[in-house]
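Troubleshooting log. The previous structure file for this entry was overwritten by mistake, so regenerating from the original sequence record. Sequence copied from the archived sheet and checked twice against the printout by T.R.
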Amino acid sequence: MNKFKAFLKKKDIEISVKRYLIDALGAMAQGLFCSLLIGTIINTIGTQFHISFLTATVATIAGTDYTVGGLATAMSGPAMAVAIGYALKCPPLVLFSLITVGFASNALGGAGGPLAVLFVAIIASEVGKAISKETKVDILVTPLVTIGVGILLSAWWAPALGAAAMKVGTLIMWATELQPFLMGIVVSVLVGVALTLPISSAAICAALGLTGLAGGAAVAGCCAQMIGFAVMSFKENKWGGLVSQGIGTSMLQMGNIVKNPRIWIAPILTSAITGPLATCVFKLQMNGAAVSSGMGTCGLVGQIGVYTGWVNDIANGLKTSITSWDWIGLIMISFILPAILTPIFNQIARKLGWVKDGDMKLS
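Regenerated output below.
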């Protein structure tokens, strides 16, 4: 047993929740951002501003035409897998072999591909790390083992994992349609909390394919956390904190939350209000890329995702036009309500002695 532990340590194989559900999941979200999300944004910009270079076909592969954004989107599987491998500190030959693994697991996982990529890429990475530099023909053995394990697991697991993820996502979306008030609260609070925790709400939403009203509630929860923390901590963090949390991430407050969990009450209560308002009053749907549902105001990706969904719905005949009520709902849920409600709840917490000056100061 001691020899096995020493081997794992030598290979930097750390079997832990942090390594797999925080580091790997967070990196996967970055891979998604740099492929699927960026591709979607490029396509939207090209279509809306009539930029011919961005809407023209730049490549035709196996009979399929690709735009610039389309090429970026098509690489989401490899991008996620390589990002996961990078987080797991894979050596070069393993890391590069994950390109094939990511493509296979994402393709075979269908709409639930991101979840399949997460599981398959983690195992292929660790097996690849274990075999790396253990033979004199490493340049052959390591890629063969990494790709072989990845392809076999993709063929075996990916369809089932993808189907399971989609069933869970479909169940959540169905429940939100059926009970928009209750599920608006549940989805908004849980996804918002995930956004601030050191895990990836974006990757979770992508893995579950969370769109529609449930996606709108998720956007609401994320915005409540980001805009909420940014505004209510303005006294301590000024403009730098407003920007870094408001369009960056509320995860910056995690250290302060550990010290005083009560600072989290205000944004969570806000998300419990804006979630059902999004689903019941404004009927806010996020029908762009599912990963956008878990991004909130980070780079305004959540709002771009909602807008992209509107455009797609119009193109598919599901929506006639973008109305002023659509814009009012998006702005109210994303910015105005979190900026108003969170400081109010925080002030109540201060009067109760639960929150004090300096509790939200960023180092």
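Strands lie at 59-61, 64-66. Archived copy saved in two places this time.
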